[in-house]
Amino acid sequence: MPSLGADMDEGKLVEWLVKPGDHVTRGDIVAVVETQKGAIEIEIFETCEIGEFLALPGQTLPVGAPLARLVETACGGDVPTPQAARQPLPNAPTPPPPAKPAPLATTGQAPLASPAARTRAGELGLALEMLSGTGPGGAVLLADVERQAQAVPLPAAQPAADDRPKGKPGLDMAEMRRAIAAAMSRSKREIPHYYLAHEIDLQAAQNWLTARNAERAPDRRLLMGALLVRATVRALAKVPELNGQFQSEPYSPSAAVHCGLAVAMRGGGLIAPAILDADAMDIDAIMAAMRDIVARTRAGRLRNSEITQGTITVSSLGETGVDALIGVIYPPQVALVGFGAPRLKPVVHDGGVVPRLAMTATLAGDHRVGDGRRGALFLAEIDRLLQEPETP
Asked: What pLDDT score does 378 carry?
């Protein structure tokens, strides 16, 4: 069971997306795990073969518990003997025998089902309790829902008595709020924050965006947020110590820039998945990545690498937000950049006072890895980059 954040102690295995004997490549999605942040797609970090499952859908396991055994011969390691390959891992739980696919009985608990199956069943008005699951442990998969939808109509699902705040399937908003509180409490307890604020003239950036978007279709237009993310990740080249995760002494900045993007959930709560290798992207790629990650966050389809590998976070409340955002660093990161709402303000420009678009940028920095002087240099570099939006 992977750790999907500093606030996670355990997770529930929802669905296997592979089966024993399948060959998998590093980065493939192999399972779905449900946490306080919703359903997360789990990537594998080996190129090998799935040997056997040590956990079945529906089991809640602590972080670090083994989920499956990999066949080492396919991973390029030493070739084990068949006997050695079949010996249990240390402290591994003995998995229960696999259940035959059968109609799931109504037990007062939600039936085992993948997040996609739950969503589709809700759209079609199908009761999961009435479906036969073909997944491990009898779990209902998306294919089971589609197959039943093409067969005969089933009674509509009756709403369960539940006083929890409603969100996406597999997402308990009350649990998410507790997870956020735990992470932020740890951050303020362990990280010595310092804060800086700097006003940035955005008129040049806005003029460039307007010209760039004039001949683009609506779905390809750029937003100011993409320019803010690009300026942030590129400014880290001048102040690299703000990019990384403080796991232990001595601290070492990260070579890659994985920019976390704070995404507000429609039902409440906040998740900050990372755009991986954002510093290597051009403005169009950043815009596409932002659209993709916001859509998948709200649909509950994030990957574990996006949850765990962030090296800095950008947070903005958008055009309807407040003038300044004073953020709390998301551990184990060491910096968070906040952007207030862009507003027309009286600005001295070319010797006169004129209305120009401006916003306040803030930095929450970790005093263990830097100080206000370095943070000020970082915000000044973001400002400089936003005055030259045409620079590739």
From this structure: 98
pLDDT-derived band at 119 (thresholds 50, 70, 90) equals low
Tell me how far apart the alpha carbons of residues 193 and 287 are, in angstroms, rounded to a whole number: 30
Which among 375, 383, 386, 387 is positioned nearest to 239, based on CA atoms? Answer: 375
Rounded to whole angstroms, how far apart are CA atoms 355 and 344?
A: 6
Q: Output the pTM of the full model.
A: 0.69
* CATH class as words, domain 10-86: mainly beta
Give the chain's end-to-end CA distance (angstroms, integer): 41
Name the pLDDT band for 373 (thresholds 50, 70, 90): very high
Instruction: Copy the structure tokens of residue 2.
Output: 């992977």
38-43 and 302-303 as β-strands: parallel, antiparallel, unpaired?
parallel
Q: Of 49-53, 86-90, 304-308, where does mean pLDDT reach its minimum? A: 86-90
59 secondary structure, DSSP code: -
Q: 173-386 belongs to which homologous superfamily?
A: Chloramphenicol acetyltransferase-like domain (3.30.559.10)
Q: Which of 130, 365, 159, 124 is nearest to 244 (CA)?
A: 365
CA distances to 74, 76, 85, 342 from 82, in Å: 14, 16, 5, 64
Q: What is the pLDDT of residue 336?
A: 98
Domain edges within the chain? 10-86, 173-386
DSSP 133: P
Is the Cβ–Cβ distance between 169 and 38 less than 8 Å? no
pLDDT recorded at residue 6: 63
Q: Exposure pattern of 126-146 as b/e (b: 16+ CB <10 Å)?
A: bebbbbebebbbbbbbbebbe
Q: Are 164 and 171 in contact (CB under 8 A)?
A: no
Mean pLDDT computed over 226-254: 96
Q: What's the CA gap between 266 and 171, in Å, rounded?
A: 12
pLDDT at 345 over 50: yes
Q: Give 180-207 as a DSSP string.
A: HHHHHHHHHHH--EEEEEEEEE-HHHHH
Quote the pLDDT of residue 353.
93
